[in-house]
Inverse folding.
């Protein structure tokens, strides 16, 4: 799959997932439709897709469909900003006005495309005969509207980027630069249409450079609108991996305490299959294991404290692991608790993160001593 299409499909998949969770979010719906139109336009522009569409619907149809999809792409992009404005009613009115404009542009380029023989309309932007008025109108009108819509969207994105903080501002700046680059490319293409319309040849390397710049700008735009979500997912994945690793490292401590006090092992909320499936989630198992370890330490605390100890253990992890093993052996022998159970305050601190580090350190000491 081409890199551009792959990037568009990835961005579209992410937005469809978000839209399923918030189906009434109009700005999100606009972004999703924008990416959908962009993703659909790309296969139509490819040689295989274009020939297939032309075979079914007639020569030149693929090019017309592609440009209509591009018009819808930038229209829905503008709708995102209009629906995101503070004045929702004004945004809806502006969206309806922009719909009229894009409808007029669509009619103009459709009439221009259908008013010439398909042999004249065949070919790409670089090979089209711009001296034919209808061909020049087709490319120029579409290009000017794309330049206008992309430029406005880029300007709005720049405003939001300046008001935002990281990491959202980073994604917005990437989007703004991508939109600005696309607007510049469309403007250059419109100038090329005018130059070629009067019969002046434009070097092919220049047109190829403009096409490459346009593709790079589209990729940057797609990366920008998915940056924040992708960054959040990466952070979520890192947390998932950390919880999975810590859950495994706690196993020696949890096993010792669970054998001594099996009643502390928390069962699922119910016997339903869904609850049992949720209970196997990494985050749930991680937090449940921490709770079970802390409860077990409270229960086993009478066997851990010496006569001169209080509720605070200032000993190192190795010594605590040794005391836990001795306490477990005494419990197996049926030795009664020498004193009431008390909550233990670990030496590394009372906050949750310090507590987890202490528990992991003890579990590692138990593993080494095993």
């Amino acid at each position: 799959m081409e890199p551009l299409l792959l990037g568009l499909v990835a961005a579209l998949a992410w937005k469809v997932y978000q839209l399923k969770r918030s189906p009434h979010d109009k700005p999100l719906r606009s972004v999703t439709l924008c990416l959908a139109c962009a993703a659909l336009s790309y296969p139509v522009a490819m040689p295989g897709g274009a020939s297939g569409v032309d075979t079914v619907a007639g020569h030149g149809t693929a090019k017309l469909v592609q440009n209509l999809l591009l018009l819808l792409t930038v229209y829905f992009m503008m709708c995102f900003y209009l629906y995101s404005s503070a004045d929702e009613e004004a945004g809806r009115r502006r969206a309806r006005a922009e719909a009229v404009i894009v409808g007029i542009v669509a009619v103009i380029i459709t009439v221009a495309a259908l008013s010439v023989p398909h042999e004249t309309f065949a070919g790409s932007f670089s090979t089209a005969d711009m001296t034919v008025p209808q061909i020049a109108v087709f490319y120029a009108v579409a290009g000017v509207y794309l330049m206008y819509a992309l430029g406005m969207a880029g300007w709005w994105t720049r405003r939001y980027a300046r008001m935002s903080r990281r990491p959202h501002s980073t994604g917005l700046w990437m989007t703004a630069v991508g939109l600005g680059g696309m607007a510049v490319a469309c403007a250059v293409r419109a100038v090329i249409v005018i130059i070629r319309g009067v019969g002046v040849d434009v070097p092919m390397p220049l047109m190829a450079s403009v096409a490459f710049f346009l593709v790079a700008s589209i990729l940057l735009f797609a990366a920008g609108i998915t940056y924040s979500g992708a960054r959040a997912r990466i952070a979520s994945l890192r947390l998932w991996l950390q919880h999975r690793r810590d859950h495994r490292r706690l196993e020696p401590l949890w096993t010792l305490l669970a054998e001594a006090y099996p009643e502390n092992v928390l069962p699922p909320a119910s016997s339903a299959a869904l609850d049992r499936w949720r209970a196997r989630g990494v985050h749930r198992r991680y937090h449940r294991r921490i709770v079970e370890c802390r409860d077990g330490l409270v229960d086993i605390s009478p066997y851990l404290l010496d006569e001169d100890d209080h509720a605070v253990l200032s000993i190192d992890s190795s010594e605590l692991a040794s005391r836990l093993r001795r306490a477990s052996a005494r419990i197996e022998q049926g030795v009664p608790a020498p004193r009431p159970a008390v909550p233990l305050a670990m030496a590394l601190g009372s906050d949750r993160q310090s507590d987890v580090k202490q528990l992991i350190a003890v579990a590692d000491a138990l593993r080494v001593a095993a």
